[in-house]
Design goal:
66 residues; mainly beta; two-stranded antiparallel sheet; two-stranded antiparallel ribbon; globular
Length: 66
């Protein structure tokens, strides 16, 4: 588990740089005390990280999770 501080980049929009050690499926859990959302709640998204050689042009688009 890692704890990362987010940076606000717009009104209600936050970002953080995340480097994962290997390809695979990952779960990203978020907590927000100001919104009353604790880490243990079901507030997560899943990420699928592909090896660099498997990425093609259609998969390189930046996606935003809200």
């Amino acid at each position: 588990p890692r704890n990362l501080q987010l940076q606000e980049v717009g009104e209600g929009i936050y970002q953080a740089a995340l480097t994962l050690p290997e390809a695979g499926a990952w779960y990203l859990h978020v907590q927000s005390p100001s919104l009353g959302r604790k880490f243990a709640e079901d507030n997560y998204t899943s990420l699928r990280i592909l090896p660099a050689a498997a990425i093609n042009a259609s998969q390189t688009d930046v996606r935003s999770v809200r």
